[in-house]
């Protein structure tokens, strides 16, 4: 059996189990969706979701390529250091975080289909350029010397542009699916959203590392280019913004804008309305914390394990070798747990689930301070990933629909997802200063020099928990 099939088998089994569990849940009382509607809804979110997952592959390939670039000697120095990667990643996430000012309103006016096409098409082109730049450096192609000398600056620009187009992805998938899901069944959609995020992480990391192991480095950018171009065509042919566009009947979704048939407000008025909504602002602040914590784990565990391998031997661990697969499984379980608990136990309230998961993150962060130099660490970060991906799917994927409303969900999810990546940007800049510089291999190889990595997660976890508890009783109120 090919290695990729062996790694994907646990994910496939888990997805089958999840599908059976969700299919056997009692139908939500009062929602009489026909079988034809349910089939068409799957046809709508599945290509959208897979496009979103492959956007992740074209987003985190910069992390996958980091150490391959770092192992390349260019003029006596590594082609990419920890600090170089931090700057590139920070440039991308700050662009992503600010893009909601433009892309949220665009999505509300032009629809989720427009945005997923913009995201997939633009990211495909930017990955093509990064792939060509990498090929040129490695093969002494046109401008190889200049590209090598200025790789960090060039990738800051290209990755920043890539992340501008990437920012359409989350806005698009939530906007396009909001008219297809009632508030009382959106917990299940939150589970689906968490699964899609998790599949994206798997594609990005495990497929990405397999690409680097079997092909030239530039292919880690060029293969996502091809996949995104293919799904651009599929989305163009299949995705519809509303049930009405698909020849079905639109229905009252029960969210904050349901029943609002008035004219669309000017963009500035929508932003003012959102920022005056204490629930939206609190969700955004919780997700700021999620952005910091999620990427602190996803982006830095393997770097820590590789650079301290002589002292700790974590590079030979099962978790290190199967990082993407385990993150995927953890994310699926976190998303499904959060979604089902929200709809079936807490009457479609999202705050209680976020509070429970943040409690787990806080405990995990404290334990991590005392275990980051032990073999227990790899499994601990997998468990913590389950908590934080569950929160992210529940708030960015579901609560943004509920409290932004179908009409203005583009702005709402843009604000919330913008705060996610603002948190990631703060993490990247903070780690630029507090993590060891691997240009000095001896410093980076000493685990005690990495203590700021787990310690930094504790105050952010406390803040996220306090804010999540403020959402405990929050529910959307339809216009009519």
Q: What's the overall geometry?
A: globular
Q: Biggest β-sheet: count, sense, barrel? A: 2 strands, antiparallel
> What order do the strands of the largest sheet run in, or round the barrel if closed?
1-2
Rg estimate, integer Å: 22 Å
Number of helices, counting only DSSP H or I runs of 4 residues or more: 19
What is the name of the CATH class?
Mainly Alpha
SS-based class: mainly alpha
- What number of structural domains do the residues give? 1
What is the count of β-strands?
2
Q: How much is the average pLDDT?
A: 84
Helix proportion: over 70%
Low-confidence stretches: none
- The CATH topology is given as Growth Hormone, Chain: A
Give the distance, in angstroms, between the N- and C-terminal Cα atoms. Answer: 56 Å
Write the element-wise H/E pattern from the N-terminal end onward.
Answer: HHEEHHHHHHHHHHHHHHHHH
Beta-strand residue fraction: under 5%
Instruction: Give the CATH superfamily.
Output: MFS general substrate transporter like domains
Give the CATH architecture. Answer: Up-down Bundle
3D structure, described in words:
With about 475 residues, the protein is mostly helical. It has one domain (about 40-470): Growth Hormone, Chain: A, CATH 1.20.1250.20. It has 19 helices and two strands. The protein has a two-stranded antiparallel sheet. Strand 1 and strand 2 (about 75-80) form a beta hairpin. Helix 3 runs antiparallel to helix 4 (about 110-140), helix 3 packs across helix 16 (about 375-435) and helix 7 (about 185-215) runs antiparallel to helix 14 (about 325-345). The longest helix has about 60 residues, at about 375-435.
């Amino acid at each position: 059996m090919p290695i990729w099939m062996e790694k994907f088998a646990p994910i496939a089994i888990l997805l089958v189990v999840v599908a059976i569990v969700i299919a056997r849940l009692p139908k939500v009382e009062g929602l009489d969706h026909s079988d034809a509607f349910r089939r068409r809804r799957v046809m709508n979110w599945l290509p959208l979701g897979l496009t979103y997952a492959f956007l992740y592959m074209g987003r985190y390939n910069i992390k996958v390529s980091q150490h391959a670039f770092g192992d390349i000697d260019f003029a006596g120095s590594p082609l990419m250091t920890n600090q170089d990667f931090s700057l590139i990643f920070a440039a991308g996430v700050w662009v992503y975080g600010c893009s909601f000012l433009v892309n949220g309103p665009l999505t509300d006016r032009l629809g989720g289909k427009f945005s997923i096409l913009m995201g997939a098409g633009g990211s495909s082109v930017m990955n093509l350029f990064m792939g060509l730049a990498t090929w040129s450096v490695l093969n002494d192609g046109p401008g190889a010397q200049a590209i090598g000398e200025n790789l960090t600056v060039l990738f800051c620009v290209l990755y920043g542009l890539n992340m501008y187009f990437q920012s359409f992805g989350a806005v698009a998938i939530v906007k396009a699916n909001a008219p297809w899901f009632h508030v009382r069944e959106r917990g299940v959609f939150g589970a689906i959203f968490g699964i899609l995020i998790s599949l994206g992480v798997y594609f990005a990391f495990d497929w990405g590392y397999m690409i680097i192991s079997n092909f030239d480095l530039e292919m880690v950018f060029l293969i996502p280019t091809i996949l995104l171009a293919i799904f651009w065509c599929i989305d163009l042919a299949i995705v519809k913004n509303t049930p009405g566009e698909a020849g079905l009947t639109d229905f009252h979704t029960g969210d904050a804008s349901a029943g609002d048939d008035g004219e669309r407000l000017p963009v500035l008025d929508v932003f003012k309305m959102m920022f005056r909504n204490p629930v939206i602002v609190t969700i955004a602040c919780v997700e700021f914390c999620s952005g910091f914590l999620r990427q602190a784990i996803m982006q830095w565990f393997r770097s820590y394990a590789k650079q301290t391998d002589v002292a700790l031997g974590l590079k030979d661990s099962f978790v290190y070798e199967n990082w993407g697969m385990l993150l995927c499984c953890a994310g699926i379980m976190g998303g499904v747990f959060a979604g089902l608990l929200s709809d079936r136990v807490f009457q479609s309230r999202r705050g209680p689930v976020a509070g429970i998961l943040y409690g787990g993150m806080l405990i995990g962060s404290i334990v991590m301070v005392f275990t980051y130099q032990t073999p227990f660490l790899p499994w601990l970060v997998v468990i913590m990933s389950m908590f934080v991906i569950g929160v992210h799917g529940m708030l960015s994927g579901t609560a943004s629909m509920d409290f932004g409303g179908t009409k203005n969900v583009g702005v709402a999810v843009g604000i919330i997802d913008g705060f996610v990546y603002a948190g990631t940007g703060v993490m990247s800049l903070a780690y630029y200063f507090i993590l060891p510089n691997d240009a000095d291999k001896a410093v980076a190889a000493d685990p005690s020099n990495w203590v700021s990595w787990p310690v930094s997660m504790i105050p952010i976890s406390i803040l996220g928990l306090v804010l999540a508890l403020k959402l405990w009783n929050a529910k959307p109120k339809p216009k009519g």
